[in-house]
Specification:
Number of helices of chain A: 10
Shape of chain B: globular
Distance between the termini of chain B: 53 Å
Helix content of chain B: 25-40%
CATH class of the largest domain in chain A: Alpha Beta
Number of domains of chain B: 2
Largest sheet of chain B: 10 strands, mixed
Order of helices and strands of chain B: EHHEHHEHEHEHEHEHEHHEE
CATH topology of the largest domain in chain B: Peroxisomal Thiolase, Chain A, domain 1
Oligomer: heterodimer
Strand content of chain A: 15-25%
Strand content of chain B: 15-25%
Shape of chain A: globular
CATH architecture of the largest domain in chain B: 3-Layer(aba) Sandwich
Radius of gyration of chain A: 19 Å
CATH architecture of the largest domain in chain A: 3-Layer(aba) Sandwich
Helix content of chain A: 25-40%
CATH class of the largest domain in chain B: Alpha Beta
CATH superfamily of the largest domain in chain B: Thiolase/Chalcone synthase
Strand order of the largest sheet of chain A: 5-4-6-7-1-8-15-14-9-10-12
Number of strands of chain A: 15
CATH superfamily of the largest domain in chain A: Thiolase/Chalcone synthase
Structural class of chain A: alpha/beta
Chain lengths: 377, 337
Amino acid sequence: MTWDITGMAAVANIGASPQEIFAALCAGQESRKPLKAFDPDKYRAAYAYEIDDRPKGGDIPRRATRWLTTVVRQAAADAGLGEDLSQVPVLVGTTMREQRSLELWWRDDAEVALEDLHFGTALKAVFGASTTYTFANACSATLYALGMATDMIDLGMADTVVVAGTDAATESGFGTLDRVQNDIPDALRPFDATHKGMLMGEGAAAVVVQRAGTGNGPVHARVRGVSMNCDAHHATAPDPDGITRAVRDAYSRAGVRAEDIDLVMLHGSGTPRNDLTESSVLRHIFQGAGAGPRMTAIKAMTGHTLGGSGLLSLVMAVLAMKEGTVPPVLGLADPISEAAGLGLVQGSPAAGDLAIAQIDAFGFGGINAVAIVEAAR
Amino acid sequence: MSATSTTHTRNPSAREVVVTGIGLALPGVATYGDLLGPLPGKGGFDPATGLSGRELRHKDRASRLALRAAEFALHDAGLTDADATFTGAADSTAVVVSTNLGNADSVCEATDTIARAGVMGLSPLGLPQTSSNVIAGWVAIRYRLRGPNLTVCNGVTSGLDALSWARNLIVAGRAEAAVVVGAEPANGVVTKVLGEQSTDAAVAVVLEPVDAAASRGARPRATITGYARARNLAAALASAGVTEEQSVGLWLVDEAGAGAGHLLAATRRIDLESQLGPLSGALGVLQCAAAAAHLESGATGNVLATAGGPRHDATGALLLTPWPAIRPSTQERGQHP
């Protein structure tokens, strides 16, 4: 069974639509900016990948919610659904929910209610949606949500599901990350020998998933299968066994083999632990699978957009398959030895005939999700 | 073809999913049977003594509460051995956590520390609880549960939603069993958010397909039969399959039940929050435990649990019925004291 992706939307530091973001990834210009979100004197990290839409004079609550309603509206319009989502489930994946608003309420007495912490409140107000869920599944949240959306369709609970993700940087998250990184990164450089760690980005993404053949408009791509599991190993560090199981389960669900994969959108968070683990697992998976797929890691330009990052990678994979172009990994000049032999795209975009893409997303708590998506032709 | 769809939350052909274990870490409630009587009662969980121990060290309060509730539920389900090691199918057991304010204290306290001392004032041990899924991660790690791991932060309906998603994971074949935990800690940040004092609360239930439960000799306590999250109570009841003929013997209400006297008027009602204070993400899972108590007591009728209402973004409804082998018509009173 496959599921149709009939609507897509995204916003990030480098663009306000999937096409803008994809073009920026292909152009490959440095995108990190000096930290503006918080008082830079309090942090060692000096850069981030923020969406620069705060008013002068300070932060405001509910930015993550605003991006979410924007991308849901755009994805729904793209699929021809209109603005009434009263009969459509909306599954939102996020790491931080509206915890940035909670922080602003706690520190600065911003007007924030308990009901603002989850996104159903805004989805009800804007779209009349009631069958809404906020899943706080760290950085694999949106691919988890995508998998559960395909389950809903499979189980006969819905024909159309909106899957979305959003995150704004929080002081508590940005600060604690800063605290635990020994060597503070000045850029996110996945799989490069100079990688030092992760820097946060901000963004949101949404897709409309429909039972095969039931949509009104063109099909952008087809979901072949989504796996989800947990390492049950470490609270924050990745585990090769759990990630390997997630990749193999995704292949099994999708009915594909390693040699069928043309493109891998890497999790690529730029932490030495992730990059080493992910590249070692993939080297093993693609051993003996011919030339192997092209691989790229968009966090080099978007920063780590947390809960929405998996879905943003998926939307970029769909455009890559449509265009036959894989954007390069910005700043990748000297790949780590564990990545030797992987088809990481360096320098400039790579052209290719791409039919099947694998998207990786791994999160705190050792939770992994891998999606397999097929070009619609 | 229509571009939109109606959500159908009952699937009669699906595998039936039953509750096979219940654990509480809740002051004033000693066993789940007590949930049907006046609360808070005597005894129950004592956080002062119950939240210590080596395996709980360096963890946030919500995670510690949740670990205790999960421990009790897995023991109750017969899924741990004498060393408290999980004996079930760890690769295909899911963890589903419901919480709204579990890490709110960690988040707010970190901002205070940064303002006072910069990032170097923070403890590196606080990294896991910056992410709202910290509780589910610790529960999985403790019992090596490698199935899907889900954290539902969905407002007042969260606990009911979490139960339904756990059932979905089982029915979809992604998990053979699920540990569902509702957890909310009591602390200054939570009191300020809620506008009133709350209690430490964690409750866990184990869900399994009825055939799997039967084959290992587990004792089912209730069946998760219907669920919906809808625009209002009437829509939620209709979508969850709750009708007059369903013979609801107990309605676990929150404010959603207050203004709905015309619906299911003759039913006994219990409002757990009016007795225990705000339960937030723990409410729905605690309602499930109370439902099991009702169904096990031999009292007649099914159990309806609802949460949410006009002041919230939706109303959630969960219908719980006796386990398939023993329907109310054949069940003798007092059979399960």
